[in-house]
Amino acid sequence: MAIGRRAMMGAAAGLLASPVVAQPARRPRGPFWPGGARLAIGVCMMFEADGGQPAMWQNGPPGTPQTGQRFPNLPMIQGRTYGAKEGVPRLLDLFDRLDIRVSSFMIGETIRRYPDLAKEIVERGHEAGGRAIRHAPQYHLPKEQERDFLREGFEALRSATGLWPKGFNAQGLQGSVNTNDLLQELGLVYSIDDRSRDEPWIQAVNGDKELCLVPYMGHVNDLNFFQNQQRSLDDYEQMLRQEFEVLYEEGAARRRMMSVPLHDFVAGRPAVIPSVQRFLHWAGKHPGVWFARRDEIAEWALGPGRALTPRDAPVLPG
């Protein structure tokens, strides 16, 4: 605060000594988060086991009688099944040890295959986030077909847990130009399919209605490190720590949140989970850190913290 006061006094002195000029409007100051917290950390646990991914199938080898035929991709299926059998239980135990509650976004077909596990996630205090019925693209679907694609996934969640989702995640964050309007029509409050800010913001949908965007960042995504790029555990931990350090420092003067995306079949593996645990434990030792479910972040941004929440139109090409 002393640095801020000195800066303000210096600015005031400069204005007295020079002609009055228009100053840009300043956004109001905190509290940024409940209880005066400095940084919100939103951990996501993606529940994707056997979720109807297109990669679950492969074509027959070129130049053989089976060329063009479809066959189950058994290693892919087994790797995703691992997330339900081993990854989710291991991550849930970790969150209990650290006393952290997270948001779990669950594919509809995954919920149908593992309804008891979906129910357990909720019973252990975590948010049940919505996803479509299959882990497949939706950005190309006509509006009414996309509505059915979403609703079927949400109905699967309600059937298993008794809850209708408040938040949503599309495959690869790639919704359509209609998705956010549809989410609001279907009774959802927020989406995580945004990478444009380090804080939640409000998008106008369906005319004068609202949907909160609670960003999800790909560069700290466990899937990018180990499934796609095969980078080292040291790289992963360093990225998480540096992301935290910058956002925590900025959090003294403006609202900041950090996204920690985890996948059941990646972060839940024995080799990876110690890195996740070390980071979350280290981050939690800093004063003013709020580990929050995404629905809690959205509700604060739309409610008590609304004065600090930006409101923008989506950025589209053209």
What is the overall silhouette? globular
Count of discrete alpha- or pi-helical segments spanning 4 or more residues:
10
Q: Give the termini separation.
A: 44 Å
Give the radius of gyration: 22 Å
Helix-strand string: HEEEHEHHEHEHEEEHHEHEHE
What can you see in these coordinates?
The chain has 10 helices and 12 strands. The protein has 318 residues and is an alpha/beta fold. A hairpin with a 3-residue loop joins strand 8 (201-205) and strand 9. Mean pLDDT is 88; it is low at 1-21.
Quick structural overview:
The chain is of the alpha/beta class and 318 residues long.
Feature tags:
alpha/beta, 5-stranded parallel beta sheet, globular
Write the layout of secondary structure elements.
Layout: H1 2-16, E1 39-47, E2 57-59, E3 70-72, H2 74-98, E4 103-106, H3 108-113, H4 115-123, E5 127-130, H5 143-161, E6 167-168, H6 179-185, E7 190-191, E8 201-205, E9 209-213, H7 222-228, H8 233-250, E10 257-263, H9 273-284, E11 289-291, H10 294-302, E12 311-312
Parallel strand pairs: 1-4, 1-10, 1-11, 4-5, 6-7, 7-9, 8-12
Antiparallel strand pairs: 2-3, 8-9
